Amino acid sequence: MFIKITSLFFLFFISFEISYAHVSERALTLLLPTEYYIPAGISVLVLTILITYITPKSFIGFLFKPLEIKSIRFSSYLSDYYVNILRILISLLSFLFLIFLVILGFIGSRDPLANPLSIFIWSIWFLIMPLVQIIFGNIWTFLNPWYGIGWIVFKNRSIFKLENNISFIFPSISFLLFSLFMLVDISPDDPDRLANVVCFYFLLNFIFIWLFGMSWLDKGECFSVFFNLLSKLSWLWFRDGKTYLGFFGSQLNSISYFPPLIVIFLTIILATLSFDGLNETFFWFKVIDINPLEFHGRSSVILENSLGLLTFALLLFFIFLFTIYLGHKFINEDVKFKNIIGINALALLPIAVAYHIAHYLTTFLVNVQYFYKIVSDPFNNGSNYLGTSDFHVTTSFFNSIETVRVIWLIQAFSIVFGHVIAVLLAHSISEKYLKLKSSILISQFPISIFMIFYTFLGLWILSTPTVG
């Protein structure tokens, strides 16, 4: 089964064809001129690549050069002390809110669309927090529910020290298990089931904080690690009592090294966001040899989807390693692969965000309405605390060609724009450790080809019908 899926995945990557339909959450299939949209998106990316090739060596680096806002400065001593106090207080409130949600998961409605835990975890926190991190910076460091209670109970004490070089093993395993739960489990949005998983995950990480100290939140807890990385793409950030403004990824200019194992972590994330979409296509059902008309739900494809996700993650991991290795194989500069692979992997972050926006936009547009409705009746007992329980949830925008076209354009734009940022960021990263313009161009050629094909994959997934 593994060999068969691997072979078919390989054939998939070399046998793209144009699709002429688009689907939004299986609400309707809308015919769109994807023969124009897909080539246009790829053309934009190719043009970006050509610009990076013909511009001077310092141009892209200048684009990512941060600007200090001198009018906004503060004492680093006072900020460290009071910010930590504020961080503890907000974290404790977040912890109490999580407890409240878990209780509602156990005693509230069994309907996932009427239970605050299911709606909040899958449609608010998971969908919105990555964008919040990019727009506002590392807000998660305050909202993290482990920090406050962990600081009070353990402070800075620890039993073991977590080494930086191996630390990404833990979040990689955690995110892979989370991905399997989200994409393969028969009912990940069941309130009672989700409440048990949340409790187990919280307690497990609390034990790890006891073992490794508060540094576990920065190095071991997968969402804290992921959100912290995403915050590096923010336009605005604070460091050493100073305020900085810069283009997406400008913060990465001050980072010259990342552990090589970050590649595993980021490829698992990207594979998850890509496979969550591919696994619903008719192509995938052809791969696993299941008739879509006889599809009986998740329980019938547990093994196939598990192997598919693992295979996709492995393929993406090795393809990315190969592109970086090949790009540096023929340059005339002395570069150690293990020293540059980690920092190069950061270019995958904008692509992950792009897939996140594109794939979950329609889900958010519907489920945020349910959240707005149930905040007035969290206990599902007929209450109307905020006056919104009578709100009528609508999906009528999926039935209009004008609104669906806007949705599709937003999704397509996010895919293309994410890859454009990734190309620019990869070029800027290579300028940090390569001296010659020729070396930079050679090193970027394989990864540029990878970006082009992955853009095609993203747009193809958007434009192909899915199995209901």
Explain what the structure shows.
- α12 (262-278) crosses α16 (348-374) and α17 (401-433) packs antiparallel against α18 (437-463).
- The strands form two sheets. This protein has a three-stranded antiparallel beta sheet, with no helix packed on it.
- The chain has helices at residues 2-13, 34-54, 57-63, 76-107, 116-136, 140-143, 145-154, 169-183, 191-212, 216-219, 222-231, 262-278, 282-287, 302-329, 337-345, 348-374, 401-433, 437-463, and strands at 21-23, 29-31, 67-73, 236-239, 242-245.
- The longest helix is centred in the C-terminal third of the chain and has 33 residues, at 401-433.
- The radius of gyration is 23 Å and the shape is globular.
- It is mainly alpha-helical.
- The protein has two domains: 1-66 and 247-468, no CATH class; 73-245, no CATH class.
- The two termini are 24 Å apart.
- The protein contains 18 helices and five strands.
Layout of helices and strands, plus pairs?
Blueprint: H1 2-13, E1 21-23, E2 29-31, H2 34-54, H3 57-63, E3 67-73, H4 76-107, H5 116-136, H6 140-143, H7 145-154, H8 169-183, H9 191-212, H10 216-219, H11 222-231, E4 236-239, E5 242-245, H12 262-278, H13 282-287, H14 302-329, H15 337-345, H16 348-374, H17 401-433, H18 437-463
Antiparallel strand pairs: 1-2, 3-5, 4-5
Helix pairs in contact: 1-14, 2-17, 2-18, 3-17, 4-5, 4-7, 4-9, 5-11, 5-16, 8-12, 12-14, 12-16, 14-15, 14-18, 15-17, 16-17, 17-18
